[in-house]
Structure formats: C-alpha cells, structure tokens
Amino acid sequence: MLTLKTHRILPPKLTSLKQHQPEKNKTVQTPDTGKANAGGKGLSLPAVPAKQLKAANAVIQMEKADIYGSAAFANPAATLATKYPQALIKEEPGSQGIDGDPDVEMIKVLAGEKTRDKFFTFIFERLQQAEADYKKYSEAFTDNSEDEGIQTLMNEANGRVQKIKAIQENSDLYKINDVTSAANWYKANTLALSKAGLSPKLIRIKPASSGAASASAAKTDAHDFHRDAGYLKVTAGGGVSADLNGPSSKGWVRGHSGIDNYAHRFVEHIHVDKDDHENRFEIYNADKSVVDAARAFGNSKKASLHPKSGAGFDAMAAEEGTAGAASLASAIAKATPKPKPTATATTTTTTAVDDSSSSTGGGTTTTDADASESDTDTTG
Predict the structure, then answer these.
(1) What is the pLDDT of residues 62-95, one digit of tens each?
(2) Where are the domains of the chain?
(3) Where are the residues of the annotated region Disordered (predicted)?
(4) For a 10 Å CB count at each end of the chain, is N or C smaller?
C-alpha cells in the first residue's frame, strides 16, 4: 500500500516584518514586459529560455509519452512515484479553482500571523536572490553583449525581480487578517504569484532515504504536476451554440473555454513538468480515442467555438464566474480551523492533538513552526 505524505516548505523565521512592508506612497512596480530599460542595457530581445537556445539543433520530440486512463488521473502521485523512483513528487495549483489542496494550504499560511510572517520573509529572500542573479548576468552581458544566452538569463532575472517586487509591494497583502481575507487575496493574485515563482507546491511523495545517495537524489530530482479538472456547461439555444459543450456534451474543462487545444479544452487532464519543454507530458482522464475525438471535433467546429461577444460568450463567462465564486466559498470553508471536540468527564484515554497537524488529500500534513520544512513549499 502506498502512503501519500505531504510536507510543507516554509521560509526561516522572520527577523523583522516591518522592513518587508511597502513604503507609503511608493510606486508599485509592475511585472517586466521584456522591453528595453531606460539605461539602454540591451533588454530588447525576447527572453527565450537558455534551454531552448541550447537545444536549437536538438531532435524535435514529435510525440510525448502521454498517459491515458482514469486510474492514473485519479492518483497521479502514485503514478509518478512509480515512473520516477526516488524523486520528490509535488502538486501545484491547477485550474479547478482555489479549493484544491495546494491552494487551501497556501490560504492557511496567509491566514496565520506567524506563517504569514514567514511568507513575507520568503518573498524578501527570493527577491534578494533574483536581484543577485540579475546583477551577475548583467555584468556578464556587459563583458560580452553578443552572447544571446546570457542576455536571455539577464532578461529572465530582471523579469523575476519586477514580478516579485509587485507581490512584495501589494498593499492588500498586508491587510490580510483572517481566512476570508487570505482567500480573497490569493484568488486575486494566483496568476501574479505563479509568474513570480511564488506559487505553493504540495509534496505528495517524499521518497524514503536509505542513505546519503538516495537523499541526495531526492533533493535534486523532483517532478511537478497540476490538475486541470471539472466541467462547466451552458444551456444551448438563444444564440448559445451546443458545440460549446464539446463532442460528448459534458462541457469544457473549467478555465479552458477560450483555448484551441481541444484535447485540453474538452478532456480533464494533468500537466506533468509543464515547464520542462523537452520532457513534459499529460495524464488524461480518458482513453486516447476520446482525446483524439475531442481534437477532431474542435478542429471541425472552430467557427462556433470561439465567440468574441454575444450570447455564447456571455454564457461561458457567467459559468466561469459562478464556478469561481463557489470555489472561493469552498476554499474558505476548507481553510477555516475546525473546533476541537470538548473532552468529557468519562474520558480515560487522552490523545494529544498538535495544532500544527492536519489532514490533506489522504496524506499527513505536519507543520514545524521552527523548521524550514513543512507542507506547503512556496518555492514556485
């Protein structure tokens, strides 16, 4: 039997909360757009990942090792643990709203005063690292302005600096004082957190270490996944095309109403290592024939699947809005601490309940307030 355990990664203790709060009336910097800066440092080229530049002459991977079937979809952590022995398996937030396990654990971190302080420190440390990277690559680019690889790394580091600053200087972050305000802030900033590399990750499988070699392998070999699940559906008629609900009339995968990857639009799926352009793949909650049929349907119905305005567009937007509101309410309910049962006089056996422990998604969640490791890894 496979036991799924979770461990949350949190930053070290905060040294001073005030030093990380935004200065009053300070202009909030927005994420970098990739344009040249005022100093003319040559930031005009698009930020192409160095891996892509190095792999320009590599053999193109024509077909990914996708996995099909409900069993793998239902338990991706176990599937990936088998595929990648001695690797950390982490779950990221997906598109099913903000009431998934990584999201709820992050909301708990933001809602608690001590854990929120740790998150402020974490942001500060990540900003320092990004600034150090930018300085290093800027100096290297000054020495060799013809090196596009170095320019790319410099651009990416600069982008990270601006995106992290935007989170750090978000005044609403410092107004969080309970679960509800934490959930509302998180819902409004999930995309910004993701782009800044600050999204939470929940460790689903932490391999047992039998020695230094396996422990080292676990630290360096990690695989991420996130779910894109849940269907939304509109009522056809009155200018609303039945085609919007897909080939099987189930509807579309929430958050995917506008995309032209019809396998993803109409079939629930899990992204594995999405940022690894050479090795990423998907786990589909269906047989391959169903996925192929979704692609064929989409390609033949393009004209009706992408309304820019009108009844169909409004109907889809309304469904997404309703689902978002329901997800917010669900997340608040999940993140709200449950009252502890009152002990009765007839109780003869006492079980200690640790305030820092909870149960998450079938696994054990343990938080050590004084350690750098606990369940939610906000390392992005």
Answers:
(1) 456 899 999 999 999 999 999 998 899 999 999 8
(2) 59-98+261-302, 102-206+222-231
(3) 1-43, 331-380
(4) N
